[in-house]
UniProtKB/TrEMBL annotation:
Pfam families: Ion_trans (PF00520). The chain crosses the membrane at residues 20-39, 51-70, 82-110, 138-157, 169-188, 200-217. Residues 23-213 form the Ion transport domain. The lineage of its organism: Bacteria, Bacillati, Cyanobacteriota, Cyanophyceae, Nostocales. It comes from Nostoc favosum CHAB5714. This is Ion transporter.
Length: 266
């Protein structure tokens, strides 16, 4: 049975119905698999395995291209969708493959950004549905943000430095190590980029580490301090776990909170 435009748009965004969950969970899994393929390709693996990985990645990219076409087809305002954040991320996930067919090698750098497609699911509490507390959600998002940025930088620095400096950037793990020590401003100096683009990426890593890590950790600390002044009382309407001590209604949905008895010793 063919779906209408409205139904197609609904199921591509829906994370509640069984069909919507199945579609989006499959897409999230393919993002992780494709990212794993990029990492595996940086190692010395048999040609037969590398061929199978290329076939799998090609199949995933084709599915992503069909998905993008369906999202564009079902969007009510197509111009607005094309220039939306999620659309740009989706397009970056498929462009390296199709433009690579005409030997635009530098465009392959964009494929490392594919992992950012998971942001769509994280914003909607999809991947972390098993985490019940709001603090846990925030902590998980912070960890994912840090991992995604380190992963992207690692892929970029590997792609740039490996052709000219394979001794120091032989595998993805080498690049990942360099990204971590650079972004945390440890800077052991045992691995150094030699290309101009590699040095530029290193500067961007340092700036990102200086700006991002304190901000993310500070956000977590503020949340923990705020939660320390709250009590745990699950809302029957939306499930929000923590509320102010004197709150009678849920600040998120307005549902009346269950009464709390405070036992005191005289």
């Amino acid at each position: 049975m063919l779906l209408s435009r409205q139904e197609t748009e609904f199921y591509l965004k829906d994370l509640e119905t069984p069909l919507g969950k199945a579609i989006n969970l499959t897409l999230a899994a393919m993002v992780l698999v494709s990212s794993g393929i990029f990492v595996a390709e940086t190692y010395n693996i048999p040609d037969s395995v590398r061929f199978q990985l290329n076939v799998a990645d090609t199949a995933i990219v084709i599915i992503f291209a069909v998905e993008y076409s369906l999202r564009l087809w079902s969007a009510e305002n197509k111009i607005k969708y094309i220039f939306s954040f999620y659309s740009i991320i989706d397009l970056m996930a498929i462009l390296p493959f199709f433009l690579g067919m005409v030997d635009i090698s530098f465009i392959r750098l964009l494929r490392w950004f594919r992992i950012l497609r998971l942001i769509r699911f994280i914003d909607r509490k999809f991947l972390f549905a098993s985490i019940s507390t709001e603090d846990g959600m925030i902590f998980a998002r912070i960890l994912f943000t840090l991992f995604a940025i380190v992963f992207i930088y690692s892929g970029l620095i590997y792609q740039v430095e490996h052709p000219v400096n394979p001794q120091n950037y032989g595998t993805f793990l080498d690049a990942f190590y360099f990204s971590v020590v650079t972004m945390t401003t440890v800077g052991f100096g045992d691995v150094i980029p030699i290309s101009e683009l590699g040095r530029l990426l290193t500067v961007l890593m340092i700036f990102t580490g200086i700006a991002l890590i304190p901000w993310q950790v500070g956000d977590l600390i503020k949340r923990v301090v705020k939660t320390a002044n709250q009590v745990e009382t699950a809302c029957s309407g939306c499930g929000l776990a923590f509320h102010d001590v004197d709150a009678g209604f849920c600040k998120r949905c307005g549902t009346k909170l269950p009464s709390r008895r405070v036992d005191s010793e005289s």
